[in-house]
Amino acid sequence: MAVKFWQRKKAATSDEQSSLQIETVGHSRIAQISASARKVPWLFNFLQLLWVAGPVTFIAMQSAYKLGFGEFAPARNVIYFVFFTLFLGSIGLGSKFVSVAFTQPRTERSAERLRQAMNWLPDLLFAIRDIDQAREDPGRRRLLAAATLLQEVELGPDGVALAVEEITGDASLAGAARQIELYRRLGLSSRVADLIEASADARLHALNQIHQTMPEIADTLRDRLMGTSPRREEGVARREGFVERLLAAADQEQPEALPLADIQELIVLLFELINGREIRYLHFEWQGSWEVARRVADVETARSRYRLAQTRMDNRLRHLGYRLLGWGEPPLSRADINGPVVPLAYRISEALVALLRQRPRSGTPLARQVTEIARLLQKLRHDRQRWLQAGKQFKQALHKWQAVQAKAHAKLPEEAGKKPLLAGLRRAPGLQIQEAVIGWADEQKLEFADALCSLLEQFELHMDSGNLSSGGSPMGPEDIQRLGLALLDLLQQSLDLGDLAVQRAIQAAPAAWMGGLHSVVGADARAGVAAAAVKDVRQDMGRMAERLAAQWVTWYQLPLSASLREQLVHEYQANAERLEMLANRPQDSERPPPDPTAMQAARAEVMENPLWDRLYALARRLAD
Fold it and tell me: Where are its TM segments located (predicted)?
């Protein structure tokens, strides 16, 4: 009878049971991390002590005495062992009481701070996303919101149709998208193919239009119109270069140059780590000569500095662009600032010319704006020189590497000299692949949760119906940017983000899908959903191995042996054809190493244009 009742209730309350299971998993995860001590059942422990000191001690002693001496123990011996057990147990019970009295409050506080951190991070993510989109014009905001909708894993046919119509304005194409999604869910692939073919012209027209207005969402739209839905195991691609931009903004002490979208990526990463995300990655080091190993380290350090200097310059350029919004023909827009750097630099120079032609009078708001722009141009010149200098140092490091590589080859016997330095992954001298993992231990999670809660208290953050406020006032982009740099500092306490291998690993590993957290309430439930989300993400080690191989060939000019390619394919599932293409690149140990600045020829051309110096000189003369 009980079974029938349970079956009836199960059908009616499946959602509640699923929610309860998620909360249970999340609660268990929080308890595991915080090592929450169970409250001691003192009465049970006392009764257990009496049981051990009484019947258990009597039976054990009499049995042992009988076996050892052939008779039962006298009463005084029994009394001695009973009181001995009582005193020993009482001392142990008292010690346990003192230990729990000191550790349990701290453990409970850690668990509470962990719950607060797990609750706050998703709320911050969604609030900052809304604030970021609120700064856009209504048309661009509509497209961004629709693209966000299309990235939802559990989006239904009506949601897909709504997002497609919002982006394209084509009701018939939206109807086709609804049908495609509906039949895809039913597994009717042949009908999906019919609808894709029937809507081909409208799809191509819509994609051409979106490529002109907002190319960053074109791929998402194309996937939905082709019947491809996001999957949890594939994760979500991270914004290219967000770690470098965060580091550059922190290094320049210039939070206003930091895009809010990069802060969102940082919050997602923090939420993944606190919920147990582990990111496997590959790095390499030299096995063999110490001098060669030092040159390899020098190349990696110089390369990291060069990339950081380039990101600093790009950040400064974008910051200058925000000061020139609306100037130029056509007017400089946020879409331009969020786009590629080289076209942005040309657009900024045009906007500067248009602004400085106004020749503002002293004391006017426009004159004060020119003063600020002159200050930013001066800093941009400084960042440009640092970028060029970092490029020269990178090139010098590559020259020294090439020299020591040639010296190492010369020392080898003639037959060994014909073998590539990348002979294998294990013990052979050369660059050796090693595996590592980015992740937090439970102690690090608790330390971060405590530091995060203290930071939120410092900012006096408050969330009311999705609206984020600081100190009683609505939180603006500047406040969020300062908060983002503070969060970056917390992450750097446990993770060396300056390491290029760590940056590559984070960038290459897709983020866990966090969209479902918006409708989940409570730290326990969110912890359960997040734990499942980070567990579902599949990491492609093959692409990471291919990137490493490309670095060896491009920067270190080392050949890829057949044995190395075979091991990369076998151990990390790298693409054999891509490795073959890299291996077939022409190798010449006598040719000069690659020039980093020359590889950024378009960027170098626009940033070394003398027009920047002339504009700076003019801005200084017109400055208030």
Answer: 42-65, 77-103
